[in-house]
Every structure is written in structure tokens, then in C-alpha cells.
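DM between two lab members

TW: hey, do you still have the Bile acid:sodium symporter entry open?
JB: yeah, one sec
JB: this one, 323 aa:
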Amino acid sequence: MRRFLPDQFTLLLVATVVLASLLPVTGVAAGWFSVATKCAIALLFFLQGARLSRQVVIGGLLHWRLHLTILATTFGVFPLLGYGIAHLLPFDLPDGMMAGILFIAVLPSTVQSSIAFTSMAGGNVPAAICAATASNIIGMFATPLLIGILLSASGGGFSFDVLFEILLQLLLPFVVGQLLMPWIGDWVRSHKKILSPVDRGSILMVVYLAFSSAVAEGLWHQLSLTDLGELVIINAFMLAVVLTLTMFGSRALGFSRADEIAIVFCGSKKSLASGVPMAGAIFASQGVGAVVLPLMLFHQMQLMICAVIAQHYARTALEPQEA
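TW: and the structure you got?
JB:
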């Protein structure tokens, strides 16, 4: 049953939401906290750029069929699925939460957990590293463009000026980190445990700021148990569809078992680490808390389900050897 329990970071996210609900930051303090949050996010992407080895990116380009399959799923199948849910299925969620569903659909893949599950299942780990990394780099451009298209098609408002803000806040620190990687990369990678609080702390700061604003706008008075139930159903439906497509689609395309595992875990997952900062930039004038809530639920669901699938892959790989 341990695999179904929330991980430590999820518990911290829940605690942050509770804290924001009881003691939200407002007024002048919220302004200063927003500045500190942007600085923390810039530091987060700077460290990500400094950690990434260029050899990994160059080597990953050689397996182009696998990477194109994952990118087509992440930025093609998922957005189409999100658009279909928003327009074809009879769900009546508040506008902010439906925007959150569309936002999930256009986010890049996760990095750490995709690689971890691929390794656990016995998949192609180098390909997973390259694919997840490429997904996050491309996502800095693709996510704001795709959410703009989906929101415009849904009758929502969106300004493409936010693309510049995202590039300034996220891509620029990442590029600077990459440029300095030859000098500081080894130190950053060797001090992962020391620097990990920057990763988690910056996300928690964004969540606290977002939900503080949402509480001030009356989020919990607008949200019902029916809305939460619909969010769980929609997230489960999206995850099930994409997991099925990536699993059987990779087999139909003739990929090896190791490549199939990488496609399943990199193609079906969405990044909370990239999504929360992007939400703050894209939906700055809207209720960010309502947008981030569906992503937090999806994050926990994908961890639980993918843990079960990874163990199944590992078990079925051992059975022929034992026989």
C-alpha cells in the first residue's frame, strides 16, 4: 500500500495550500513575496541549465524516432485530448479550473520522475534523460503558444506577450546556466542534496502565492465537492488514455521494450516543476490557484499509477529469466 501513499513533496504541497488558506499573504507583503518568488524560480532554472550535460542532449538527438514520438504525444495528443474534454464532455467546472485542465494538456514532461520510473522498469534511461530534457526546453516556447491557441479557441483571453515574460524569467536563466556549465556543472551535480531545497522551495513559494491570491478571491467558496470529483475523473481519464496510446502505439510502431518504457513514462507525464512557474507568468491576471489545483491532483495521480506500471514492467521482465 506504500506506493499509493502521497510522497513527502505532495504532503508539503498540501501543507502549503492549508497555510495559504489560513494565513494568506496579501497587500504589500504579497508584492515583496512575489519578487522573492520570481528570483527563486530564476535560480531554479539557472541550476537546471547548469546541471544539464551537453553530451546528453547531443547524444539524444540520434534516437530521433523515439523523441519525435514522445514530443508528438506531449504537445500533440495531450492538447487535442484536453480540447476535446473541454468542448465535448459534459463537465461544468469553473472557468479557472477548466483552464487548468487545458494547461495540464500543454505542459512538458517531467524529468526526475520520468527517468526514475524508466530506470525502475528496465527501460532506455539515456533516451528518457534526453527526451524529458528536450521536452522541458521546447516547452518554454510550446506551452505558452499552445495554451494561447486553446484558450482563444475556447473563448478565453490570452496575450502572447506572456511568451516574452516566460523566456525572460525561465529561459534566460537556463541559458546562462548552460553557458556556465563547464565551470560549475560538476559542482552543482555533486551538491544535489544541498541544492534540492531550491527546487522544492521555489515551487512551494509559487503555490503559496497562488493560493493566497485564490483564497482572497474566494476560491474555497466557489469550489464544491462535485467540482473536485469532476477534476479527479478528468485527470484519470486523460492519464488512462495517454498511457494506453503510448503503450500500444509504441508497440505498433515497432519500438523495442526498452524504448516502449521510455515512451510510456516520458510521454504520459506532466511537469509540476515547470508548470507552476509558468502558470504564475501566464495567468498572472487570473486566479492562479484554480489553475494550479488540477495540476497538483494530476501530479499525485501520475506518480501513483506510474509506480504500479513500472513495477509491472520490472516484474514481467524477470519472469522469463526465472522460468
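TW: got it. DSSP finds 14 helices and no strands in the chain. Residues 2-314 form a domain with the Na+/H+ antiporter like fold fold (CATH 1.20.1530.20).
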